[in-house]
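User: Teach me something about this protein's shape.
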Amino acid sequence: MTNLRSPVKLFQFPRMFAIPNLSPFCCKLETWLRIAQIPYEVVDTPDPRKGPKGKLPFIEDAGVRIADSSRIIDHLARTRGIDPDARLDDGQRSIALLVQRTLEEHYAFVLAYTHLLRDEGFRHTRTRFDSVPAMMRPLVTALVQRQIKRLLWKQGILRHSDEEIVESALRDWRAVLAMMSGGPFFFGDEATGVDAIVFGTLATTVLTPIESPIRDFLRSQPGCLAYAERMLKRFFPEFARASRAA
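Assistant: First, the predicted structure itself:
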């Protein structure tokens, strides 16, 4: 199906570091758009409350706003007639779903902890509040952190020690890495939707200056950092150049 539509408007957090986005869900969606070769325009949106569901990312397509990265991908695949997963068999689709559940419904909460609460992360990510007037910045920063702590306590992550949280994340990644093929992409020679998911979470972990035992572990794994850098070079060459320049 030929795509004659106007570019999709992609609303996401402003960029940080030499990666598409610090948010794994924003990074996932933009990566999928590039894999699918769907034209889009980025709209920097610091406040997620502006989204239809109070979260980022969301898109505007032909005047309609759609939230949730997975729902957005389903919508765009259906309306554009584009499916990067078309060649996958049932077994591969099942693996992709399990990888998605592992990274998006567990590891994503670990990222919120390591990047926004842990001192090693927050000293880098606190710059996201620079757009807030200086007088209000400490109050807004404290409020956001309290909200994150409340969310992670209800979810359960924050009820564990730092060591336990880190170990749970390492178990996530050991399982995911065991499923990856020896090819350039997750399932071999061509990128599919699961590559957007894996890269979205991997980039914010290994391609940023945020230190953690999880980052150290992943960087030590054969081919893991090379995979992240290969995805960046293939689909986001502008960031790959910026990373080399830095």
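Now, about its shape. Residues 8-80 form a domain with the Glutaredoxin fold (CATH 3.40.30.10). The beta strands are 8-12, 40-44, 58-61, 64-67. If you'd like, I can walk through any region in more detail.
User: That's plenty for now, thanks!
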